[in-house]
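Moderator note: this is an archived Q&A kept for reference. The question asked for a predicted structure of one protein chain; the sequence and the answer are reproduced below.
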Amino acid sequence: MTTAVYSINQAMSMVFSVLLWPFRMLAPIWGLAFVSVLTGIFMVWVCGRVSNQQGISRVRDRIRGNLLGVRLYQHDVPVVLRLQGKILRDTLTYMNHSLVPMLVLLIPMLLILVQLNYSFGFRPLLPGEASLLKATFSEPAILEEELRLEASDGIEVETPAVRIPSGSEATWRIRVKEPGVHSVTLWVGDESFKKRVQGGGGRSPVAPLRSAHLADVLLYHGEEPLPASVQVSSLELAYPPLSIQLLGWEMHWLVFFLVASIVAAFAFKGPMGVEL
């Protein structure tokens, strides 16, 4: 299952590489904005195809009419209570009409969010910048074996392993010495496990986690998953978050994506003739 999920994400990564290629020399927010607008249009298109458009239109008209009635008859308590009951009923009906599009969009939106996190969630380590590499093991007893971390020429391992039996994990501090794609190799006895280290001042997709668990492979797919039966469950490198700035304000990429995609959806629903 992990292999299938990894293959799907790799195929999606190729699509996103093409979409983001024109924005590779610009600030990250431009590529993110482009994908957000496309996502908003995609959501509107799906809603128009799978939802009950006539039913949504009728329910929205009834809600508007009843809201107007509440305002006109605000001094007549029995009438207002009846209208509020109808508004509640129609609101539940509207939510029922929205359920099918939400279910249809669930998997595509999850795949889009995974790709955006891969492209905009983290940045490479700068030359001279240090970070922590954490290895999680399948059982605490493995920590008693010989653990050795080897690094390629562009990486310096600054500390020995700090072993934490309660979490079945060990941590090293490493430092990037020069830009480029490097690697570290963890030796557990005679077995070796490699983790890629992305260094440099530019912007490129970063995979902080290499894991054997299905959920981790779904969310962090930049490297092949670890085999499920090995001693090491995951290798995680703490990358700094990528800075997304809009008019001098720094924000998380997910906040910008949600706002921009929703704004785009409402902006295009009219031209596309879709009721939301």
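Archived answer notes: The helical segments are 2-20, 28-50, 53-72, 77-120, 214-219, 253-269.
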